[in-house]
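ERR on first pass: missing label on line 2. Operator R.T. fixed the label and resubmitted. Corrected input:
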Amino acid sequence: MRPDTPQEAAGLLRTLGEEGRPVRPRGGGTKDWGPVVDGVVVETGGLNRTLEHNVGDFTAVLEAGVPLAEAQAAFAEHGQMLAIDPALASADEVGRGDEAAGRGSTATVGGVIAANDSGPLRHRYGSMRDLVVGTTVALSDGTLARSGGKVIKNVAGYDLGKLFTGSFGTLGLIVRVAVRLHPLPPRTATAVGASDDLDRLGAAARALAGLPLEADCLDLDWRDGAGRLLVRFGSAAAGDQAAAAAARMDELELEDRSVVEDDDELWMAQRVHQRGECILKVSGRSTDLAAVCRAGSAVVGRPALGLYWLSLPAEAETVAAARAALAPRACTLLDAPAALRADAWAAPEAGALAVMARIKERFDPARIFRPGTFVGGL
Amino acid sequence: MEGLIWRLRDVVGADWCYTAEHQLRTYESDGLLQYSALPAVAVLPGSAEQVQGCVKACADAGVPWVARGSGSGLSGGALPVADGVLIVTSRMKRVLEIDLANQRVCVEPGVTNTAVSSAVAPDYFYPPDPSSQIVCSIGGNVAENSGGAHCFKYGFTTNYVCGLEVVLSDGELVTLGGRELDPPGYDLLGAFVGSEGTLGIATKVWLRVMPAPETVKTLVAFFDSTHAAGEAVSEIVQSGVVPGAIEMMDRVAIEASEAMAHAGYPVGRGAALLVELDGAERECEARFDEVVAVCERCGSDDVRVARDEAERQLFWKTRKSAFPAMGRLSPNYFVQDGVIPRTKLPEVLEAIDALAEEYGMLVANVFHAGDGNLHPLVCFDGRNAGEAERAEELSGRILDACLEAGGSITGEHGVGVDKKKHMPKMFEEADLDAFQRLRCAWDPAGLANPGKVMPTPRLCGEVPGVYRQHPLEAAGLAERF
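pass 2 clean. output:
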């Protein structure tokens, strides 16, 4: 089913709610994350209008089904961006090289928010929770509710936008959002330094994260026993800043240091490696870098944030072993075969889970939004 | 109530349980003095366990309670419920853990905002910096989602809280998040931060801290009009510069501040713009010259660059003295906290001028210009009959103008008790209903800071919504949504 307006979506959900039919919201269909659920697919493809781009205010109001790539292209014409850069194609397409070629980039704004997906820019700009300033959601009793606003600073009312960010379609359908935009950097440059020694790599990452570099991105790339750190700058003085960071890398005893001015490919690779056949996302700490890399053969990391994406063989035992090795850190299984995704989430603390259960009851009174598929069987 | 007070005394000890009127008077208002109410009892717990004990006692007795940090809030969020319980966190001011390798700090809620930055100085700092930062508490910052002058670049409290220990209104102690980002499940931290004490009380706060900027450069530029200064703000932001802070004062505010801070500001000029750039040295230097050029291009013939830290502090002192300085010009004033899309600045300022003229009242304007957060100060003399009411009406009409421009009724002070009547102008009934769902999920009994945020008292229906009349409803004391 494919509603064309927020009102139509709300009406449709009320009917499905009354019938008690499970619903699976779908944007571009690029992220098959979380346990599989049979149900009516409600697509947001008809909700694809950009309602406002307030260039002077650095804000935009978009319907949830707007493809992120399309929105970014429109913002870029005015030298602006929505500062979020996850892979925009499915794991298979990404694996085939489509992402790099700009094909299959169908991920929608609403889908990225619902899945709390992000890319390297998260280092500086945060995730969708930090960029969404207003949301309208449709609930299973037909309610259409707006929260927040369309200005970048606002504390009126509860922040339901954050509640729905990363809710994986289990609370309601996000139909419209207002977002904060940022200036597109005039130029970029990246400092790269390598080491096969995990402890040295970890110490260097922490040291770089602790410097006031004002970098846009700080990433770890670890595969098959070889590691490197990449620090990207986006400013008029990006080249100088990258050279200074490379000098720091020298002091930190990283090898093969270089400054790359034409750096898009480097960062596309980081985005691509965040997707795969079996990806375990680790909510960890900066100091976990070495431990995470020892738990898998390929890792993309945002070490200043303590977030890591591990590529693993798609086997239940391997995933369980990695989780055991990284306990008590929360590990979420993202891309994976359906059989493995039955056990996708880490367990929230019991008291927090009880609050989540009550939130689910109140926001999804008909209990139709991907029922039973979220943390703790919500 | 007598039984409850005995139980509270057992929990916190007799020394920290106040029931005498002269003790309670200290807590009758927060920073918004036009509202006051006396609680039956004020308790000052010294630990999370004691907070839990107090909340549990209130839950068992069915008595509402209000959490209070330093009491510097400006929306009446910590206004006591008359004859209820006030839980004051000011004794809980330990910095529990500093983990610089992971850029995290864990503090108790009574720790002041400034103390967090001090604890991690000089290499790190805690970015949100409300003007009251020397006294305001982190627990209060969490409740209000506090901002500050530097939030245009760095964001708000909600962008820095990664973990909380919270006592819910049934007395349950729960942990939300922790030192790590993206904890599993719904973003309860995002819901809790900024909930104005209505979802529970924080007893422990994990915060992210940031590397301190390499360099800071500050200037003040004077213009003939706020319009010209507004143009400069737009041009600076359009050019891609993200200043740490951009603050504007109008003619009245300059005059008042100068009389107090003696910074040598030219009295009579239409607007002063304070611009601060911080960050990497090279980038900062290059961008700073651009900012100076923009100010000159937009008509400033008087750009003063802070030569040293002392002069920078003087610039800031002048800006931050704007509120107290108004107290010298006018016996009373109301501070508003409206937000507008930045590009609407000229038309909203014109509307404010017109309103000031219509009411025959003096309105000074101070704002965080980068993010369009206006603090108009409506001056009045409370000794003249009816003047306070007229000033309040004028204040409300300024908020209407902000909403008409596509903005918000509050940017950082919160809704509290002061702005709840304006909530229906900004949100539809269905939106308020969704807010109430969230509140009911956390506090079904409605004991945590009732009477704040929501425009009318609401009760939590049964889940999943089977209708049963509540005794208060039957008595006509509350209305179901």
